[in-house]
Amino acid sequence: PPPAPEPLTRFGFSEITRGVDDTHHVAPGYRADLLIRWGDPLWSDAPPFDPNAQQAAAQGRQFGYNNDYIGYIPLPLGSNNSEHGLLCVNHEYTNAEVMFPDADQRTAAHVEIEMACNGGSILEIRKHAGRWRIVPDSPYTRRITALDTEIALSGPVAGHARVRTTADPSGTRVIGTLNNCAGGITPWGTYLMAEENFHSYFSGDLDRPSGPTDARADEGSGAHPEKTNYERYGVPAGFFAWGDFQQRFDVNAEPNEANRFGWIVEVDPLDPSAMPVKRTALGRFKHEGAESIVNTDGRLVLYSGDDQRFEYLYRFVTRNPVDPVNRAANRDLLDDGTLAVARFDEDGTLTWLPLIFGHGGLTPENGFHSQADVLIETRRAADLLGATPMDRPEDVEPDPRTGRIYVMLTNNSRRTPEQIDAANPRAENLWGHLLELTPPQGDHTAARFTWDILVQAGDPQDPNVAAQWHPATSANGWFACPDNCAIDPAGGLWIATDQGRGWATASGGADGLWALETAGPGRGIGRMFFRVPVGAELCGPCFTPDGRSLFLAVQHPGTDGTLDYPGFERLSTFADPATRWPDFDPNMPPRPSVLVITKEDGGPIGG
Ligand code: FEO
Ligand code: CA
Ligand code: CA
Ligand code: CA
């Protein structure tokens, strides 16, 4: 007989079926074990989770809400240990409606609990007999919150007048980090947390002057001194409105506090006493993440999307090379380097435009007086350079094997036919697309790359969608709204989706995890591996170095778009949520949780 044809994709698992219900589903032959849930105590003497008696002090010692980014650091550092390591998990934001029994009466206590729910958790985990367990009372266990974690500001913005506040006249110490979406792990084993939608937390009015703490208040214009800057970021959005109870989140009472958020935060998980640091050289915007690669010349190159409609893709190149031997020498590596923003041209080239004070109009005539000004107003600086407005840049992942970079563009319902361009080719793009970037000769510091569209997401059978997939993609294999991604140790690309409230129109099924072939004749074939319960999105995908464990963060179960859930045409509440995943206990609300996927036969995932 003739030899069997080569499979078109490296992914041999059987797909699950698109759909939506109150629980999660994983491909046959795989286990999905619960690792940790919102509220689980992180220390043996921390209070047990009681949803009816929540307190900020207790939450600060429990696993936070809305697990997003997950990073795994093998122990010992530098090893490939896939059975013992540190798990770094971001907590992005809160969903009061399903968290609090009295959500309709917002209180100062709610806000403090929410502040304790944001940030991150660091856990030591170990695999015993094929099952992962959290090491109790590990010296590495740590919570980082928006409520009471002291964080240094470093780099060009540290100490600048525009980041000084009543509580911090030095402009070098911020309390807390918030809206920690995706992130990254550096080659020296630090954990990067990306501050994304920081505007949501601030209250106030930019047409009123700021309060008496601001020396500029009597300058006479009557407007807020940061009006132009803040408007470009949507500050104050008033969504979480912590400023109603916490004065520093009121832009009129504390005019500079919002300049202290929107940064990349570096944490050393190996030293729980080390203060986290906001690395201002990487710019201030709604950072989705911060994945990196060591360039051929040893410098570190980080990629970061600014996740909003018509925002930009950024790159940061460190001035100095990574020291692969002396970890301490990398301590402040991220304070010095060049931030650049991407312009995508119709001919398939990408040009990186450096954001450097004094160049390209980043001058006093345009209101920039120093590199600190350029970084505080990164978006306005990028506007002046002519960057390309994108369809919401989410995760950006360099593949260490090929040097190619994958960019998730999640969607952009507001792009008009007049606004389409080669890199954002669909108007009313409800489904998103993926770009593949190629640096010349693998040089991630080059001024010019080339780029290509890998897939245009959405239903390939619907001519109105104009999706682009490999024709061998099954009815389950296409997805909509790529958000997070991960590359497994064999080079396979995995994509987690976030359709938000638009799931019913974007795909008609729940969010989940898909594998996507990127090479060979099957390039562009998607395969559906996992899906989340109703109202959740999927975050975090993170593989151990052996590819045999996959950590997944199920975020906000029972919330987004539950009105469209068949038979459940009402909003979720604490008393009556669309699902009580993962406990299915009538006394427990739905709880964002981390799962770990393993193959029943112990083999690598996806093969
Ligand atoms: Fe927090 Fe861009 O997703
Ligand atoms: Ca995200
Ligand atoms: Ca990622
Ligand atoms: Ca998301």
Automatic annotation (TrEMBL):
Q: Which InterPro entries match?
A: PhoX, TAT_signal
Superkingdom in the source lineage:
Bacteria
Positions of region (Disordered): 204-229
Which is a Pfam family this sequence falls into? PhoX
Chain intervals with Basic and acidic residues compositional bias: 215-229
Q: Which PROSITE patterns match?
A: TAT
Name of the molecule in the record: dTDP-glucose 4,6-dehydratase
Q: Which organism is it from?
A: Thiocapsa imhoffii
Lineage in the entry? Answer: Bacteria, Pseudomonadati, Pseudomonadota, Gammaproteobacteria, Chromatiales
